[in-house]
Design goal:
Length: about 200
């Protein structure tokens, strides 16, 4: 295993469900006020199902899609789904969790999730972390019965594993598929860039 793969393995990456009554903070799901077009970057160019106002994350997603066929396939699958993913990168994560996906709501035949990522200096590791979380979004897209936090918890009890050591609020899960996706994308990016 390469040094970069070991570094990603050491990161704590989770799928989280909010604690009962918890607020989602700065999330902007449907109906929320949007920043004016002059103050925010446009959504990610690959399509309307993956959205971010973070210029760095948008560039990393585009770079990752160029260098990783696995990430490209994830993005294409999400674009064909009823899932919309809001991506936020946090310079200082409130917990030691490097990445997490939270189910926000389902409305009008669309399911909304938020991916929050800790900012990592390594571009390749940041792309791999994003791919890991987007794999969770695909798992949700592939399961139409997931329509709220309770149905998400039921499905992840079935397909994932509970991370009892997590410092994130609520119940934390992960899947082997998401861990494998992060490693695969990291390898593909390393091969494409020579890192």
């Amino acid at each position: 295993m390469s040094c970069t793969c070991r570094a990603v393995t050491a990161l704590v990456v989770l799928l989280t469900l909010p604690a009962p009554g918890a607020l989602l903070g700065a999330t902007e799901p449907p109906g929320a006020a949007k920043p004016s077009s002059s103050s925010a970057a446009p959504a990610v160019t690959p399509g309307p199902h993956i959205r971010t106002t973070d210029v760095r994350m948008r560039r990393l997603l585009e770079e990752g899609m160029f260098g990783s066929r696995s990430l490209r396939a994830l993005v294409e699958r999400i674009q064909r789904s009823d899932v919309v993913v809001y991506v936020h990168c946090e310079r200082y994560a409130p917990s030691r969790v490097a990445g997490r996906l939270t189910f926000v709501s389902a409305a009008g035949g669309v399911r909304y999730v938020v991916v929050r990522l800790m900012r990592l200096e390594s571009r390749a590791q940041q792309i791999a972390l994003l791919a890991h979380e987007l794999q969770h979004a695909v798992e949700i897209a592939d399961t139409p019965a997931i329509v709220d936090a309770a149905s998400l918890a039921r499905e992840y009890h079935r397909i994932g594993q509970v991370n009892t050591w997590s410092t994130a609020p609520g119940i934390a899960f992960d899947t082997i598929a998401a861990v494998d996706m992060g490693h695969r994308v990291l390898s593909e990016i390393a091969a494409a860039t020579g890192e």
